[in-house]
Design a protein that fits this description.
By secondary structure, the chain is α+β, with helices and mostly antiparallel strands. The chain folds into two domains: 39-217, PUA domain-like (Roll), CATH 2.30.280.10; 253-353, no CATH class. The chain has helices at 3-10, 25-35, 89-95, 156-166, 253-261, 307-314, 343-353; strands at residues 57-58, 85-86, 105-108, 112-118, 126-127, 131-135, 140-141, 169-175, 188-203, 209-217, 273-275, 278-280, 282-285, 302-305, 319-320, 326-327. Strands 2, 3, 4, 5, 6, 8, 9 and 10 form an eight-stranded mixed beta sheet that branches. It has a two-stranded antiparallel sheet with strand order 1-7. Strand 9 and strand 10 (209-217) form a beta hairpin. Helix 1 (3-10) packs antiparallel against helix 2 (25-35). The protein is elongated and about 60 Å long. The two termini are 26 Å apart.
């Protein structure tokens, strides 16, 4: 599905403040503009839609280009529960747990990423078990495997961002070649479903820009049934299945203090949402909490935002300048006299999530 059609559909979507990932027309419009040209998709282009990189650079080392695009499954694969082991990538592919036999990312920019493999291919990967900081694809030397160029926000990297935006679960497989205490000593092991909680760019160990993705493990999920993409039978009624959406809710004393200071009005647009149970606003952390950002849960790192602008901030759709001007929006950030905002945290946000990165 193209971003244009997604944006059109998003205008008909009702915002639900309980859902962390929201479909914002403004955000989708920004992403379409920021990404520039529409990249070819393996589902519609010959040879997997893969552009040939320079001979000295592996541009798609983590991108699925094996043509496995139809009938993509987001969730567990029936018959292969968490902990299932496989001797080779060929077995993984045959089982449908991770279909590409070489690439580390299975996915497309239009659909999202359904699975990844941790196999030790990228020096910037970090594995904490229930949390993973995964490096995007591209920029490696073909012979040495070293990072020799900046990574672009394209194909597999876009697929993981799409999964983050839409809250799609990603199957994680660890291989024996991955230098981590959580990896198997031989073969490959399916380690369950993870959520792409955040993504950003920063200089990697070799000094080149890499895209990073923080994946958080989800609790055990029921297996999802794969729909037959080639079925021609007209469905009489959509099947109903109980699902659970996982999200982190942070409503600390500090966050409530900032919301009350602004009377639950968005600092970017001034919108104040009022429900039956009272006003609603979201506390947005300028420098994200937790590894690897380690932002503090303090007033100087918290903004009071409406759901739309919280999503735009999280996904790089709006940037706050040194003078509190808003790039991507009209006007300036409203700042209460009693609210001191850290210049250091704002700079960190611009450097890692900025539109000019």
């Amino acid at each position: 599905m193209h971003f244009e059609s997604i944006s059109k559909a998003a205008t008909q979507t009702t915002m639900d403040p309980r859902t962390r990932k929201r479909h914002s027309p403004e955000l989708l419009s920004y992403i379409a503009k920021e990404l520039g040209r529409q990249l070819r998709d393996p589902q519609y282009e010959p040879h997997g839609g893969k552009e040939q990189p320079p001979k000295s650079v592996i541009g798609d080392a983590r991108l699925s280009s094996d043509g496995f695009e139809s009938g993509r499954v987001f969730g567990h694969i029936p018959g292969h529960p968490e902990g299932s082991r496989f001797e080779s990538r060929a077995e993984l592919s045959e089982a449908g747990v991770h279909r590409p036999t070489v690439a580390g990312i299975s996915g497309s920019a239009r659909e999202g990423a359904d699975s990844i493999v941790l196999s030790g291919g990228y020096e910037d990967d970090q594995d904490f078990g229930d949390a993973i900081v995964y490096t995007g694809h591209g920029g490696r030397d073909q012979e040495t495997g070293r990072q020799v160029a900046d990574q672009n926000f394209s194909r597999g990297n876009r697929a993981l961002a799409h999964s983050s935006l839409h809250g799609l679960p990603v199957r994680v497989v660890r291989g024996w070649g991955h230098d981590s205490p959580y990896s198997p000593s031989t073969g490959y092991r399916y380690d369950g479903l993870y959520l792409v909680d955040d993504y950003w760019h920063e200089p990697g160990r070799s000094g080149f820009r890499v895209w990073r993705y923080r994946l958080i493990k989800l609790p055990d999920q029921p297996e999802v049934e794969r729909l037959d993409a080639e079925s021609t039978e007209a469905p009489s009624a959509p099947p109903r299945q109980e699902t659970t959406v996982q999200r982190i809710v942070r409503d600390t004393k500090q966050a409530r203090r900032i919301k009350e200071l602004y009377d639950y009005s968005c600092q970017m647009c001034g919108t104040r949402l009022e429900g039956l149970s009272g006003p609603y606003a979201e506390a947005a952390h300028i420098r994200p909490l937790g590894a690897p950002h380690h932002g503090p849960d303090t007033p100087d790192n918290i903004l009071c935002l409406c759901p739309n602008h919280h999503v735009l901030l999280d996904h790089g759709g709006v940037e706050i300048g040194e003078d509190f001007s808003l790039a991507g929006e009209v006007g300036k950030l409203t700042v209460h006299p009693q609210h001191r905002i850290s210049e250091e945290h704002l700079r960190y946000r611009r450097e890692h999530y900025g539109t000019n990165g």
